[in-house]
Amino acid sequence: MSFLIPAAFAGENVGPAVAAAPDYMSFVFLAGFLVIFYLMIWRPQAKRAKEQKNLLGGLQKGDEVVTSGGIAGKIVKVSDDFVVIEVSDTVELKIQKMAIAATLPKGTLKAI
Question: Residue 38: is it exposed, middle or buried by C-beta count within 10 angstroms (0-12/13-18/19+)?
């Protein structure tokens, strides 16, 4: 790790010259860090955001969904920002679209 921190000498009698790391090495480390950051953090997050956007854009009446709070239900009405979910025969909940975590295959609610 000593190649990251340049050596400091306190006297005029230094002794043999120490070869310093070339300046381009710092750019190589920076580029490597950026590549790792992109591959491990930014790209997977962008992929999840794109999938969530497609999920919310494709919601329609009759879909069975699960919210981020764990409530499962069937969509009765879809508007721009909200969705009305039928939880049971007599209970309907108005929920924000952003709270929907996943869609379920048809018939899942009857099997539960």
Answer: exposed
